[in-house]
């Protein structure tokens, strides 16, 4: 077996292994460390002696590592005695009645509100997604030591706060679910439009968020917003094949070959949206409904922009933000003309709602260009290019500016 085989098994089993170890030891940090040590051991031993049951081997080895660590902690002798009495685990010793709850609890712990957003993202990708520190660092374009520090700090914070490894009570679970969803949304958003670097898309990051969202939807099938987020991710990712050319250059929505969209993902997204709609759409469901409207349109010109305006108005009522208002301006500009869209953007500028963002001058430049105010449009697009950290997006903005003469 090769390193890729170890990584594949780990990616599938990591959440279950860390969750089960956390339940047995009561120590989230110890469980994650023991699991990582088991992976390191697998990378050395599997090429020489491949196990018949790789997942069982990882579970057993990680548990032995945890027991060894507990042995060295004099304050935890009682827990060690309990573990030792339980005996060495076999390949099939996982409790099938608890495993789903364990994975769900792991998500709530890694996304706990005592953590910073950066630590929540790093921990979720590490312990639930099974990504290495190097993979997380590449995804968010930060140094590996920064990711490692966030993970270490997160585990210490959880330990210091005495966060229990358990599912929150029903009332608190609904409240804390928003934090879990926001972490998955951040991960997906970084994958679907990278905030910086040379790539517009980071599909591996986006698809990891989708995988985690599918897991969460299976664990919480009665939560509409979980299905709403999954629908949003699926419908957005459906456009990935048409969003970039062979050289990685961005292709704007109006220029995309819609035949290249992933129609299987669209069907999955629409199915998830139907489940989200059962009790009325929340913020993620409304965004998914907007994405579904785009998915149903044969072209930009034939898109139901009036419906999109209504959906953004609804989104602005349940989850108001300047980004939602900016997107509403784009939709109004398409439905009712650029002048009306520009009026909304100018209100955002006057209120300084998105300072330093390249998105405001991008939209303002587009609307000014459609109004024939080319010198102003060019200045806005050039400003947007200066503010944009993603090199692919920047090149598109500069090309648009240059075309205005």
Which helices and strands occur, and which strands form pairs?
Elements lengths: L2 H23 L2 H18 L8 H18 L5 H10 L12 H12 L6 H12 L4 H8 L3 H18 L8 H23 L10 H17 L4 H14 L2 H4 L19 H14 L6 H14 L8 H14 L3 H15 L1 H14 L7 H12 L3 H14 L3 H13 L2
Helix pairs in contact: 1-2, 1-3, 1-5, 2-3, 5-6, 6-8, 6-9, 7-8, 9-10, 9-11, 10-11, 11-13, 11-14, 13-14, 14-15, 15-16, 16-17, 16-18, 17-18, 18-19, 19-20
Could you explain the architecture of this structure?
Helix content is 71%, strand content 0%. It has helices at residues 3-25, 28-45, 54-71, 77-86, 99-110, 117-128, 133-140, 144-161, 170-192, 203-219, 224-237, 240-243, 263-276, 283-296, 305-318, 322-336, 338-351, 359-370, 374-387, 391-403. The chain starts with a helix and ends with a helix. Helix 6 packs across helix 8, helix 9 packs parallel to helix 11 (224-237) and helix 13 packs antiparallel against helix 14. Mean pLDDT is 87; it is low at 87-97. The longest helix has 23 residues, at 3-25. The chain is an all-alpha fold. It has 20 helices and no strands.
């Amino acid at each position: 077996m090769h390193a890729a085989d170890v990584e594949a098994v780990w990616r599938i089993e990591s959440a279950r292994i860390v969750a089960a170890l956390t339940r047995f030891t009561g120590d989230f940090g110890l469980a994650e460390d023991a699991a990582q040590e088991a992976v390191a051991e697998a990378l050395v031993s599997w090429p020489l002696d491949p196990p018949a049951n790789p997942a069982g081997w990882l579970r057993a080895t990680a548990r032995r590592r945890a027991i060894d660590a507990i042995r060295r902690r004099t304050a935890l002798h009682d827990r060690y005695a309990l573990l030792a009495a339980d005996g060495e685990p076999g390949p099939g010793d996982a409790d099938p009645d608890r495993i789903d709850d364990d994975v769900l609890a792991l998500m709530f712990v890694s996304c706990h509100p005592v953590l910073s957003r950066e630590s929540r993202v790093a921990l979720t990708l590490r312990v639930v997604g099974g990504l290495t520190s190097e993979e997380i660092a590449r995804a968010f374009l930060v140094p590996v030591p920064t990711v490692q520090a966030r993970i270490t700090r997160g585990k210490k914070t959880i330990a210091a706060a005495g966060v229990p490894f358990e599912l929150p009570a029903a009332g608190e679970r609904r409240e804390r679910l928003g934090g879990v969803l926001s972490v998955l949304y951040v991960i997906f958003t970084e994958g679907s439009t990278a905030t910086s670097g040379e790539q517009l898309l980071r599909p591996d990051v986006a698809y990891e968020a989708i995988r985690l969202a599918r897991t969460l939807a299976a664990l919480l099938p009665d939560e509409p917003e979980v299905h709403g987020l999954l629908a949003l991710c699926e419908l957005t990712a459906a456009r990935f094949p048409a969003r970039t050319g062979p050289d990685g250059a961005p292709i704007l929505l109006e220029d995309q070959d819609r035949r290249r969209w992933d129609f299987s993902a669209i069907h999955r997204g629409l199915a998830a949206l139907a489940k989200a709609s059962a009790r009325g759409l929340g913020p993620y469901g409304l965004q998914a409904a907007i994405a579904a409207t785009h998915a149903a349109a044969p072209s930009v010109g034939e898109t139901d922009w009036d419906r999109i305006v209504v959906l953004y108005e609804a989104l602005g009522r349940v989850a108001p933000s300047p980004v939602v208002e900016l997107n509403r301006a784009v939709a109004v500009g398409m439905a009712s003309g650029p002048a009306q869209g520009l009026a909304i953007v100018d209100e955002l500028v006057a209120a300084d709602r998105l300072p330093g963002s390249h998105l405001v001058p991008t939209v303002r430049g587009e609307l000014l260009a459609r109004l024939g105010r080319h010198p102003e449009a060019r200045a806005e697009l050039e400003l947007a290019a200066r503010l944009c950290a993603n090199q692919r997006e920047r090149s598109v903005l500069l090309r648009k500016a240059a075309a205005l003469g």
